[in-house]
User: Fold these one by one.
Assistant:
Number 1:
Amino acid sequence: MLFNFFIGIHAQHILRGKVVDSKSRQPLAGATITASANQSFNTQSDQYGNFSIRHSSDTSWVWVSLIGYQANPVFLSEKGTTKIELQTAVIDLKDIVLKTGNLSKFNTLSKIDLDLKPVRNTQELLRLVPGLFIAQHAGGGKAEQIFLRGFDSDHGTDIQVSVDGMPVNMVSHAHGQGYADAHFIIPETINKVDFGAGPYYTQQGNFNTAGYVSFSSFNNIDKSTIQVEGGRFNTCRALAMLDLLKKNKDKQSAYIASEYYYTNGPTINPQNFNRFNIFGKYNLAISENTQLTASLSSFKSKWDASGQVPERAVNSGLIDRFGSIDPTEGGNTERHNANIIVAHRFKNSVNWENQLFYNRYIFNLFSNFTFFVNDPVNGDEINQAESRKILGYASRLDKKYDAGNWKLHSFAGVGLRFDATSDTKLTRVVKRSFLENIKLGNIKELNLNAYVQQQASIGKFLLDGGIRFDYLYFNYFDKLSLQQMNAQGKSIISPKLNVQYTFNNAIQLFIKAGKGFHSNDTRVVVAKDGKEILPAAYGMDIGIVLKPVNNLFLSVAIWNLYLNQEFVYVGDDGNVEPSGKTKRQGIDLIARYQFSKNLFANVNVNLTKPRARGEIKGQDYIPLAPTATSIGGIFYKTKKGINGGITYRYITDRPANEDNSIVAKGYTVVDAAINFTQPKYEIGVAFENILNVEWNEAQFATESRLFNEPAPVSELNFTPGTPFFARLKMALFF
């Protein structure tokens, strides 16, 4: 192969280019470049818009295309890098072409969905991922509960979330392992949503079992925006995105975005939820081949919450559905981020990217799930809090090259993440006033990783294999006993393999297999002397992608996922709760259809059978694991004028406990939005729950006791879903 590689270099010429948006100068990733003279010579632009293509001549015409942009013929020369400017166009599904070597088709889907349905909040960002459901149950300020592929992932235990390469998940968090609070993201700054289901991705590490979600913000924006919104429940939102450097954006660019949000929510006890975000990003082309990107952001949030309510309290008339047993729940949180990325492209088409990030995080939460079970006088309210610093570094090399008839893409990377928390605590409180400490300590956790990945395509086959090494070090100082617990270290190796076979432009088969893991909380690790604290996940997908006609895209996958151990630290009571081995089997369906130039439809259907392994049949249900979900909608999209859509999300009834004696109720909620868009302004209105159905958002099988009740009762406790809600939006562009 090396011999053929050098022969190929001698016989061919390398033509280089960079693809950018004609207005914003935003680098365009995933553009397809095809040599006109020979359709077998094709490649895609990387995340910085760069590409290189081999050709038998030192000049050539190539065809450049990307969904959402007008395709262009471009003349390339071997001298220098050709700048290719693409102009935006209305989304057209015919631009999705199944090709060997294209592993980013789901990225393309997220681009379509993001373009057709602009998001209004971070919850809707997560809902762009097919099969992903979320539930909020603490007044809007707490991280959402996430459901994916038969997992109740709590707040992120089994799904890895990141933004611009920075982790969102918090290890050994005061409230729960993998806690992923994405409220510091301003949705209008997001350019791309990358996602994948299953543990098959070499570059994704801890918590990538059910899947991963990776957000990327715009490098450049093409216009400034001032936007205000207002709606029911005293809801208001103000957004400003300002383009700070409008000239010579290929050399440097900068923008700043800020957001303020306030709502009382539909609950009788006002949420007083307020959030402030600010985000700034700067890009500098140090040279033609070296790019610097730096960003800073800050986020603060404070809220009150009505908490979960028992069904018996509502059914008896003690409280309204939107009432509260303990109205003193709530909290505050903040996060501050600094992120620097330097990328260099060598003359031999090797890309080297280095990233350094720092996060400062503060969390303070008051909750009461059981009311008067443990303390009949003061109640069971608890306070979970922590102060955290995160330092991270990542370095990655990648290179595309040919070796004979093989097209190869190699990756290698190393990274580290160090978390240091102080005063991570669990305390008993009454009306937010301190009673006693249950847990209090300082945590230090280190994750070192390294990986290699190789993609190779020949003919109709694409092979993608990799192996990942992670080493985790856990250290805990118990401030109540003034004891330094025994530090523990543990490593895990995760192999991955993906195979793709493209019959033609209409049919593509794929098989994915891999191993992933989620780490356990440091307090569990030291308590168990490092035994069984990196539970592994083993998965396999077999699927088919179909493009039978230009206006239809289909993807169907059958999958299995096995977890060696589903136990995590239960931050709500300070105990360790092992739940044994589990298995999940399912079918995922993704469909996109274009009726006409401006009318689109999408649907995602996910069916799952989640079970505990080794348990008696009928006692082997996994609490709150979703078994059937679906999300879809119809959208009308034009570059200007009337735009809008109507969407639904559906989840069926599911077991809330191991024997299915308590059932979490399913629901169907329908939302809609309509906008009138012009080059200088936009007016729109959004509706949530337009049918005004009564639905439960978060649900739990909980043992709780009301004041003066003789004994605790185990039943369904829930937070009510939002009733009919309307919000008006006005935006100015300049």
Note: The chain has five helices and 46 strands.
Number 2:
Amino acid sequence: MARLRTRAGIVLGSPTGLAAALLAVCFVAIAIVGPSIWGEAAMRIDPAGAYHGPSGGAWLGTDGLGRDVLARTLAATRLSLELALAATAIAVVLGVPLGAAAGIVGPRMQRTIGTAISFGLALPGMLVALVLVTIIGPGSLGATVAIGVALAPTFARTAQTLAASIAESEYLAAARVLGVGRRRLLLRYVLPNTAEPLLLQTGVAGSLALVLISGLSFLGLGVQAPSYDWGRVLNEGVDALYTTPSAALGPGAAIVLAGLMFTFMGEALARSMNPLLRIGAAGRCSGRLAAAAASPAGPALDAGPAGADLATVRVQDLHVSFPGGSGRREAVAGVSFEIRPGEIVGVVGESGSGKSMTALAIAGLLPANAQATTARLEFQGTDLARCSPRERRRLLGTSLAVIFQDPMSSLNPAVRVGRQLAEKLEIHAGMSRGDALARAEQRLAQTHLPAARRRLRQYPHEFSGGMRQRAMIAMGLMTDPALIVADEPTTALDVTVQAQILDLLREINRRSGTAILFISHDLAVVTELCTRVLVMYAGRIVEALDTTALDRAAHPYTRALLETVVDLESDPEQPLATIPGRPPTIERPAAGCPFAPRCAEATDHCRVETPALVPLGDPQHLAACWARPAGTVATDRAPLEVGCE
């Protein structure tokens, strides 16, 4: 029921959905009561009153036999809608399974299905319908089957295209390895992931089916007397179009309104199948930062000695939440930290710990269904939560750069690299294209990309993975940013290219004093590059310390991460260290300390109350752990040595 209410909220939450719902209620009500209320008046013949104009007894006038056109239009609603829906259902049943099957069958069957679909699309739909009506015979059944078969190839092609993209997905490959049958693959993996565009097309097809069936009835090949639909009523009134135009305009208007209803309903239902919109309906939020009215401020992580006011970015008590089944679920829960100019701060943690959401909140790139609240979020002295959207865009667009894990998905494959780099200066600095391209060449050269001028004229697919990542870094450097947010920029690269990218980031930091927030799940990489590290778990910072003090890590989770680091001195005969258990999810947050279910040192108190982030003697070293009271540290580990020169 909750899911139905959510989807209903999405359908009614848009103007098109609301219009579709209102039209649907009207047409369904008329279809139910129409024949019983207006059926007798629709069939009453009065030759003396033929082709009379609108009057009190017949608001749309009469046809050639003196029958009330409005009554016939209203009474014909049920049959017209039934035929359109039946034809659409035939098209969906014939086309969707055929096209979707292309994603789960072998190559030979894929070619056979593709050839059959192409042949069906090559034939004009109306021609196919006319041939089938001739074979089956005129009438409601013939028109419905003919239109359904004529529309089926369009559904098949759409489903085939969507299924082909899903067939290359990793989750479908994993299901194949697990031995999932083809029927289950089709019903559980392919069709649910194609529902949104197929529903949109179903709405359009319903409108088209209504028009085509009405057209066949208008030509005398569809509904036959004594039955009648809107097409037949339109045919009966078109002879007097110039003397009594209302006799033809009435059924014509009904066809137009019903067609709009089908199209709008298809769009609204397609929106309701979008997972992001479905989540967003539970609590409408724009993903923008909102200042918390009364939020207890968490401990601010001091970036260093005096001069904290010079911080490039200052985050205090940041919360990022998403709508859930019964309220909002927090992906980031009270994160606070500062980054000063020239500092490289690393953020580590397992997947789902809130690293990327924290970075996206700073950059203003949260999904539309996310809500961020913070006691303070300052960037270069400007409170982002309280400045106007235009000021925020300009500040972040010129002083913040974001480098993502997969540069190929971040670069437009249809635009040359130089044009993409220059666009930032053209928009934010008002620079001419020539000057912007010259700056782009300089930035590419600074990233040590060979033949920078020639690279400007190339497309992203002509670059290797490391070259694309350098191009992304160059794009970020176009406006001399004060902060670079690097979200796992080396994860998809090999070890050699990874070391080159790390050297490049280090050089940029040393040369221009640019602060860097480096996000990674690899503690060894963070130790090599960063001066400070923030360890996140379940949306919280559980420890903050200098990378030179990792041998004094106090939190059990930090020590567990250190144990998983593999270096040249690791014994190849020993099994790799792992952290038992799984981290909590936002749907099922753990009570008390979030790491308690996986911690060997946890006590009953740990499972009940969440520890605060407190200093451990050194103000630069903070930990949130009941097992490590303030002033105590672990000293039983050797210093961690990772990285290379």
Note: The domain at 77-227 is CATH 1.10.3720.10 (MetI-like fold).
Number 3:
Amino acid sequence: MIAPASPLRTLAEARALPRVRLRWLVFALVAAFGLRLCLVWQRATPNYFPDEYLYAALGRALAAVGAPTIRGHSAHFPELLQPLLTAPAWRAGSLLTGYRIVQAIEAAALTLAAIPAYVLARKVHPSQWVAIAAAALALVVPDGLYASMVVAEPIAYPLVLAAVAAGICALARPSLRSQLAFLAFAGLATFARAQFAILPLCFIAAAAIVAVREREPRRILREQRLVLFASGVALIVVLVTGPHRIVGYYSEAFDPHVHPIAMAQSIGANLMVLAYAAGWVLVPGAILGVYGSVAKPRSRTELAFGALAFALAVGLLLEAALYGDTVLIQERYLFYVIPLMPVAFGLYATRGLPHRTALLGIAAVLLAVSARLPLSHWAQPGVDDHSTFLLGVQQLERIFGGNAAGAEAVAVAAAVLMLVAIGVSFVPRAATAIVLSLSVVAAGAMFLCAFEFDRLNSDVLRHLDLPANRSWVDAARVGKATLVVSPGGRVTDADEQLFWNRSIDSVGVLPGGVAPDKLASQPISFTKDGSLIEPGGVLRGPLVVDGYASTVTLRHGRVVSRSPHFALVVPDGGAQLSSLMWGRYWDGRLLGSGGIALWPAHGGGHLAGWLVLNVTGAHFGPLDMTLRTPNGKRRLIHAAANTPVSARVRICSDGPWFATFTAPSRDIDDGRLVSGQSSPPRFVADAGACTHGGA
């Protein structure tokens, strides 16, 4: 057994050190909260979907009906702590007011993470300045951006750090109080984020490391029997109840399908971005600090810290690689270990910064990995969804003016910081202050970059996807409405409408459309007369119709209100389509392919007349639109650049009429690959059209 005494100062000695007065610490936390609040309230609208809509919808349902439902259906969503804590905010008035209050709650929660980070560091390391650095890094990590979003991370973050602090105490000096504290914080963290069901497993792994290191496994089993028993009971409950039933929304987590090579690549990429997010400069020393605390611990507290920090880091990395999307960087699931790094570096520094050869080797490996996996490959839309650090890199690309310029700037800064880390290893007295200060500054700079990138994106979405009144459907006061998702519609656009309008209580998806989330959406089909059919029968009531990349025309319906890409339509009776053109954007621009459908007014009815399209070639070139009619005929419609042309297609059809078109794309506009423009399809009835044959 490792003796409690060690070359490190004991906890009592540490407490005898000069302290920053409590009132200054409180003042610092209040100031940090105030600054964060000023930042988060600059965010115009949510843009991290579907998560922000799901948590908001759950919170509203809990406030309104006391049950976790989404659009009237049970959500089977295990992460309910955030919705429970924020539910009262959604009853405070308008949705905008509720949104701002939720942001304030999450800003406060994330700011409070500094407390367990500080306490944890003080329990392990004698220097209060290392503890202050750990608290500061906990506040300025790029993932602090989540405080502006309606997600669970800000709530889970302080709970995870508190669980780690309690776990270190329970491993170092086992007591009923410390073990109950660990179980409580671990349970709350899991209730906030299901991924932290791994915390008890990490504790057990850390206890095993301590047992092996001290060569007293029986004593460790006896000391930790409460945690082992509670974890065993929880596992039995999960197995008896059924894992899929408990996790509900995340049931696919129990069906991992990851290739070993993809998994290894994911771990490498995640480690690299995690090192960047932590400020880079302290990472080599922190790794050696964890190694030293396990291989040659100077106290049981130090051993407990090293064992639990190692187990948590490995556990989160494996979890992200097994259950996360290996195509994406999973920083969102890993950043909780960052506040532990200053403590690990501090332990390395108290040893006199030994193992310089190993330090050089780790630094060389990190630089080689960063060169092998350049940030420019990852810092792009669709890949950076779960990495706030990569959002910061994209903001640097905007600043430096180039797709790779921002990544190159980060790489150069990382190389300089690594040289500093190597250089200060020869100056032990100044090393801790320099390295920890640089890491806090580097992480804080990337947080500000990530914040600015997200703020600008939020402003763009606010302008593109929403009208002046965000709650435009609620303001129309037409009652409960159904969101109709059309072919080509954007999930983000649909989620914006769902987030800001309580009266949208159901979602229907037309063929070719994509549901905005995995919950409570119904497929919509159509009959021979164009009636829209959902599983319960003909679709009735107000409809919020998606017009982003499809033009939907309803028969006998009045348009009550509009947003940039949606129309609020109240049908007279059941909803009935007269025409649908997919592959046509809201502004008339055409995709490379699409189709047109027309329906008669009655089932078994006849269509006789003309389809009229007014098309225009774009400024960058002519439009060559090829229309393939139901009988296999092709019709070429040519329009020169900036030249309008009116085309008429004869129609003679028993029942609905469908055609497809191709229009080779020639330019990118607002991220869209487009060709020329077309008016909405217009059908002109003419019984004489059938006397000449039909299409």
Note: Confidence is low (pLDDT under 50) at residues 3-18.
